[in-house]
Structure formats: C-alpha cells, structure tokens
Specification:
Layout lengths: L1 E5 L8 E5 L9 E10 L2 H7 L18 E9 L11 E5 L9 E5 L3 E3 L6 H7 L2 H11 L7 E4 L5 H12 L3 E6 L2 H7 L6 E4 L5 H9 L2 E6 L3 H8 L2 E9 L12 H7 L2 E4 L7 H16 L7 E6 L3 H10 L5 E5 L2
C-alpha cells in the first residue's frame, strides 16, 4: 500500500511516497481504508524538526495525526459489526498519511449518517479544539468576539460557533481571497489584518471586544490583544504568523483580562472523544460546516505542506486517498 515517509527532517520535499506492507488485523485492532487524512500546521513544524521539545518525533516516521475512512477488517476480540462502518480516527502525530491503517478498535469513532468522510476528517482536530475553546473562554450570547486566522480550518468553525451562540463576530484574515471564503459563514464584520489600520476599524465597529480567539499569533495576535475590553477574555492558541501571542501578565491583570494559552485545550483522551462526538453531531445537524479549501492526493503531501506553510491555503487542507 501507499504511505508517506519522512526519512529526515527538512522542507516539504522530505515527504516521500513509498510502498509499504499492508497492515494486518492484529488482535484488538481494526484495519481502516483511509478516505481523507487530516493535516495540521503543527505537522509542518514537526517535519521541519522545529517541534522536538513538545512532540518527540524522530525520523524515520510516517506523519499524520488522523483520518476518516471505512473499516475493512478486524482482528480477534473486535466486534465484527465494525466492518464496513465509517469512522474517524485520531492517531497521535504519526501514522495518518497512509492508504490503510491498523488501529486499536477503541480509537474508532463512528461517523454519523449524512456526514461526508472528508468533513469528518476536517473536524477531527479543528472541531474538537474549537468546541473546547468555546468552553474555555465561556463564549456567550451578546459577546463581541474577534477570531483571527478566521479563514483557517479551525477559525472558520469558531466563527460559526460564536455566531450560533449569539455573539457579534468579527472574522479577521489576511487578504481578499481569504475574506471571500468567509462570506456566508455568519460573521458580522470581516477585517483584513494585512491592511493598515485594521484594528482601528474593529474598535470603531465594536467599541472593544469581550473575547479574542487568536489563531494567528505573532504581530496580529499582539495587536488583537489591545482590542480586548476590560474584563474580557483572550486566547492565544495559534502560531502561523509567529510565536504564540502570549498576553503580558501585568497588563492583563491591570485590565482584568483572563488570558489563556494552548495548554487550556490539551485534552485527555476521554475529553477529546467527547468533543469529537459533539463536533460530528453538529456537522450532521447542519450547525457546523467545515471550510475545506483544498485537497491533495496522498502522494502530493509535500504540496499540501507547501500550501500550509506559505499561508496560501484557505480553510482546511486534506489529503485524499482514491
């Protein structure tokens, strides 16, 4: 079968398609035919060798944090009723960029009827984190909310979640193409943070923000922090534009701002599964619509990473397996 292998850390070119042995249904495991594999920003950092302090992954390895597909066979000790069921599976930070995979049966999460497998893959991580963030910052009706990196896979979900909860939503992204992709997702205001004076425009429209959900980081996140009104909430959980935009604790305390970071959504397996079930149910009910902006065949994983790193990708990027 086909798989993507990384023999050494480096640029996207180190993602190489290879033929590897088919997985076997060992006891307690199920073999899943992959339809769509999730891709994450952090996977590009792992591949580049820049995330070793947090994710102890060493070459050679098969990248990929999870996928959606169909159970084909099961090993002993696994209920055969899983065969032919559509599932989504979290694999950790390795093992997802494959054509087929043997995974512990306990990791299988059923995909509801009516939910496409690619949409299930799209919410596997981003939907979970978006729902957890909404709980962490206590999003509520009437909140004035800014979502940065709003045209990313998770940002687009946060825009929808906040609007569904009754918040006034400002969606910020970089450039006209990304703003165009956000139209129709429910934001009350779109802001291009590559344009001069974007924070002034947001302030004039809102009078300050109750919540900032910063998925961009860097200068964008630091500028967004200044828009938080007294007593507001600030979440710094993204780094595509640089480091996490960690709030100055002294300034936050003076303004009564509750600041949280990525550690607030580091979930144990049980909590992760619970949020994933909720995310899939929301997609099935039509309350969440994943923004899948581009897909690449499995063998073009390098191109997918290039698009993510260049920040030209809009919405979620997935790898597809024919």
């Amino acid at each position: 079968m086909r798989a993507i292998e990384v023999a050494r850390f480096g640029g996207p070119e180190v993602l190489v398609a290879a033929e590897v042995p088919d997985p076997r249904p060992v006891p307690g495991a199920a073999v899943v035919q992959v339809a769509a594999a999730d891709t994450l920003w952090v996977e590009t950092r792992i591949r580049a060798g820049e995330a070793g302090a947090i994710f102890p992954v060493e070459p050679p390895y098969v990248p990929g944090a999870g996928f959606a597909g169909t159970v084909r066979t099961v090993g002993s000790g696994v209920d055969p009723q899983w065969i032919d069921r559509r599932v989504v599976v979290r694999t950790g930070h390795t093992g997802g960029y494959v054509e087929r995979a043997a995974v512990p049966w306990a990791s299988l999460v059923p995909v509801p009827d009516g939910v496409e497998l690619r949409d299930a893959a799209a919410v596997l991580h981003d939907g979970v984190t978006a729902l957890a963030l909404a709980d962490v910052v206590k999003l509520a009706a009437g909140d004035r909310v800014l979502v940065t990196a709003a045209a990313g896979g998770m940002g687009a979900l946060l825009v929808q979640l906040a609007r569904d909860l009754g918040a006034t939503v400002v969606a910020a992204a970089g450039g006209p193409a990304k703003l165009d992709a956000l139209r129709g997702l429910g934001a009350h205001l779109l802001a291009d943070y590559t344009a001069p004076g974007w924070t002034d425009r947001v302030w004039e429209a809102t009078g300050g923000l109750d919540v900032v959900l910063d998925g961009a980081g860097g200068d964008y996140g630091r500028a967004a922090f200044d828009l938080v009104a007294e007593g507001g909430r600030f979440s710094a959980h993204g780094t595509p534009a640089g480091a996490f935009a960690v709030a100055d604790p002294v300034v936050a305390r003076q303004r009564g701002v509750t600041a949280t970071g990525i550690e607030a959504v580091q979930l144990d397996p049980g909590a992760f599964r619970g949020y994933l079930v909720r995310a899939l149910a929301a997609v099935a009910a039509g309350r969440l619509r994943p923004l899948v902006g581009q897909t690449f065949p499995l063998e073009r994983a390098a191109d997918a990473h290039r698009a993510i790193e260049a920040r030209t990708a809009v919405g979620k990027t997935l790898l597809t397996v024919a």
